[in-house]
Amino acid sequence: MFSLKPGNCVSFGWPKTEYQRADFFNWGLSINHINMSAVWSRRGIIQAGLIGAAGLTSLLTAWIILQSKIRRLPVVQFPDPVLRQTAQPIDTIDDNIMHLAKQMIATLKVRALPDFLMKASLPRGLSAPQIGVSKRLTVCGLHGELKVLVNPTIVEKSGSYQNREYCLSLPTYPTHTIQRSEYIRLQYLDLQSRPQTLVAARNSAGLLEHEIDHLNGILYIDRV
Ligand SMILES: [Zn+2]
What we know:
This protein is an alpha+beta fold. The chain folds into 2 domains: 6-57, no CATH class; 75-223, Peptide deformylase (Peptide Deformylase, Alpha-Beta Complex). The chain is built from 5 helices and 7 strands, in the order ααααβββββββα. The chain has helices spanning 18-27, 36-71, 95-111, 113-119, 202-215, and strands spanning 125-127, 137-142, 145-158, 161-165, 176-180, 183-189, 195-201. α2 runs antiparallel to α3 (95-111). The relative contact order is 0.12. It binds zinc ion. Zinc ion binds next to α5. The site of zinc ion has 5 residues, from α5.
């Protein structure tokens, strides 16, 4: 545990005198022989490091919010009718769709900021109807990276998984356990119009099913 120099502490081995034995059994080591100033200075360094890390995190948070304020969009709230529409397929991935995807990523980063900062990933998703655009476009954090899914379609699914869910469009509603597929295979287009296949399991599969539900006008509360 401690890596002090030999002169600063004694008795990490078996205590030799009666006095040391009493201390050993009381504290697990002869703590009275440790140069505590060395320990405190080490703690001071750790504390300073933690304070520095907290400061950096705050600065990063402020920076992300500042950057994202330029492009982020308000999330449509239930019971807005757009959340109940079947979204339209995207025929052409043009500049408007690219811009929309960027805005959705910025919006998701701000709305799921704690996850983004703590895990450097976003185990959350946002679909275009949630920002008032009835198109089949979803952005989500998956397998440690942000993905943009155009016209996603589940082509295979199996098993069942109890997934804990909430929704940015229903912020006042409680988290519910929803029965989802344990495994899904999904096809979609990326932003370069290339067909892609994605395999997801358990909570990742649940996240994708939640987002594709949004494209079909279905909300998680419908599945409680
Ligand atoms: Zn949702």
